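#dry-run=false #mode=assembly
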Amino acid sequence: MTFTSRTPRVAAARKLQRRRDRDQSGRFLAEGPQAVREALAAGVVVELFATDDAAERYADLIAHAEVVSLVSDDGLAALAETVQPQGLVAVCEQVDVPLKEALGKKPRLVAVVAEVRDPGNAGTILRTADAAGAGAVVFAGDAVDPYNGKCVRASAGSLFHVDVVRSPLDVVTPLREAGLQVLATSGYGADDLDTLADDGVLAAPTAWLFGSEAHGLPPALLDAADRQVRVPIYGGAESLNLAAAAAVCLYASARAQR
Amino acid sequence: MTFTSRTPRVAAARKLQRRRDRDQSGRFLAEGPQAVREALAAGVVVELFATDDAAERYADLIAHAEVVSLVSDDGLAALAETVQPQGLVAVCEQVDVPLKEALGKKPRLVAVVAEVRDPGNAGTILRTADAAGAGAVVFAGDAVDPYNGKCVRASAGSLFHVDVVRSPLDVVTPLREAGLQVLATSGYGADDLDTLADDGVLAAPTAWLFGSEAHGLPPALLDAADRQVRVPIYGGAESLNLAAAAAVCLYASARAQR
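#status=ok
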């Protein structure tokens, strides 16, 4: 039996494109073979929807899913947010953990996206933090939902590799109590990233705080942090794009912590 | 007199949203106060369209434009590609220079986007290269048009700060002849970025080659380069997003060249 966009199970899964339904159900959608593979490896796939073609092409993935439902092209199009999901969409259990649990593992590198509302930026920072060896990424305050489809796609699977945390905005005290120095990024920060690297400051376990591109970090977080750090600007640009600045900071830490 | 979307001058300017018309006319559109300010400073504004409100709010910009045309909200909406252009769109002369001219200034840091087709990625790399102190950014081969509206916006004004070059794909020889070592980025590169930094290699004048996120660099460019360099991955991610990888590489050079 092949489901269509009007089959109740498909219509119900489609609702997970909305935050309210994700929050209520504790589930979300992952689309495309890469994300589905990572979700299966993480053991969080509740149901895998696949077209006939995809079921054949990705037989290895199908074999690892407990519940597989074949869908028509139209059914898949209803579930997918991209034009090329390559025939696969999985309903997954949400994977985030409490802050206490993530910090209990004593990560040496943590990224905090505080009130970052752009899902592409947040997902890219999640991917970059994972690449730089971070143990946890904290979505703090009124940040984008980490299970937003665009964020999931921008994370390119990293949502399943690091501890993702959703937390209120006042994260500085618990981060510090977990032995992390807390570095807030700001275009007007008193400390220059390259100078901190020269002085050996970045070798210590570190949590980086990143604010929204439009507003930066909330003053309360800037004030609570151990340092306010700016990425040096060597040319005529006024600033860096948020995800680029995060990449430079996280990799400066990764290099210092080797 | 206030122009509307049907005024021939507005309709003609609107055509610059299309590459063919940009290529034929040698002009492009810049929207919003930041881009317009930079374009005016660069002396390339041919005509500035402004709503009544914007003409009042940005009187300093209006005063510096030789030709100002007031447009209705509907006329501005026709010219703008974003929902919030803040009432300003400028027709500008294209600013790119020949490769020979850019290299004649002996830049110590150059970024090449080779066949990068995503305008957001290309514009972000342009902005990051500017911030890192690069003298030139080369759009090589079948790369996105640097005057694509999304690229212009992602560059956040950097289009007007560095030498932008459009060139065929075979850039390695002229770059090397200008005294630059040519480093090609590749997820499979034999050289690790952090090791090159440790060994002092990055202090030399450098041109970085970045390929498309989907296909990487063309084999001919990888082979022609002096080294193939990978950004180290310390965690579970397979790779970095293109613009994030470029930020890490360009800032590693900037730091080494201080």
